[in-house]
# Entry
Amino acid sequence: MDRGDSRVIRASEIGQYAYCARAWWLARVLGYRSSHQEAMDAGTAAHERHGRTVVGYHRLRRAGGLLLAITLMAAAVLAWLLLRG
# Structure
């Protein structure tokens, strides 16, 4: 779905509605922008940066697990070769 799809209600909108239904209505129905748009855009950018950091963490964690598995297999093969001979 498109980011501007009017059928999608995001969690942040639920929070906005709970805080002030009128502000939600003004933004959602009439299209008024908040006077704090710069701060909201900065918050969105910070959340996106954090999301990329989390994705990077999970990639590194998987890579570490793979390297550990390869190391353990190599150690087992080496031990088998040393004990066999």
In short: The chain has a mean pLDDT of 90. The chain has one domain: 11-84.
